[in-house]
Design brief:
Distance between the termini: 38 Å
Oligomer: single chain
Number of helices: 6
Largest sheet: 9 strands, mixed
Structural class: alpha/beta
Order of helices and strands: HEHEEHEEEHEEEHEHE
Shape: globular
CATH class: Alpha Beta
Number of strands: 11
């Protein structure tokens, strides 16, 4: 996982556009979900949350996974020993939208496609960065959508949805992403 973190850090500092998951460094071959896990972790460094999002100065920074968990232990491995400012990182597996609670990042699995509108409504502009790989989810209000083209992960970012939730996404992350809007406005 340390190699993946270095790979993503180098990627973020140079191209910020795509990352191949077919073996970026040496003989280690990263799987799609290892790379996506590192992406999700690193989003925490490229998005600004209001300090009021946290109940206490050392409350955990929560990354939730709603629905089936495609990451397995990969996300936990990417976050092991890490923190954002003084906030320890915590992964929470969530079965239904009613269990979301306070999450700073919420990955919405493909299994939740039929409920996507209800999930986004339940978040009601909370300061939760939504991430998914559901097709056209960024146009439906998800803030960051993973797409894969030629074994490269690309990002589609809905800046309007992020702003509506009080989040600011770094220009470094936006630079090589495809920017989209929610159909019909917010």
């Amino acid at each position: 996982m340390a190699v993946l973190r270095r790979t993503l850090s180098a990627w973020l500092c140079t191209t910020l556009g795509v990352l191949s998951f077919c073996g970026a460094y040496g003989a280690e071959v990263a799987t799609e979900y290892q790379v996506k896990a590192v992406f999700v972790f690193n989003f925490s460094h490229f998005v600004e949350w209001s300090p009021q999002v946290f109940a206490t100065p050392n409350a955990p920074f929560v990354i939730g996974i709603l629905g089936n968990d495609p990451f397995g232990a990969r996300l936990d491995e990417a976050m092991r020993g890490e923190q954002i400012d003084q906030h320890p990182l915590l992964v929470r597996r969530i079965r239904t939208a009613t269990e979301i609670g306070d999450c700073q990042i919420l990955f919405i699995d493909r299994s939740e496609s039929p409920q996507l509108e209800q999930i986004l409504t339940a978040l009601d502009h909370r300061s939760t960065l939504t991430v998914s790989e559901l097709e056209r989810s960024s146009e439906r209000g998800v803030m960051i959508q993973f797409t894969t083209e030629n074994n490269r992960i690309r990002l589609r970012i809905n800046v309007d949805a992020a702003r509506a939730a009080g989040l600011t996404i770094s220009s470094k992350l936006l630079r090589s992403a495809e920017i989209v809007s929610t159909h019909g406005g917010d």
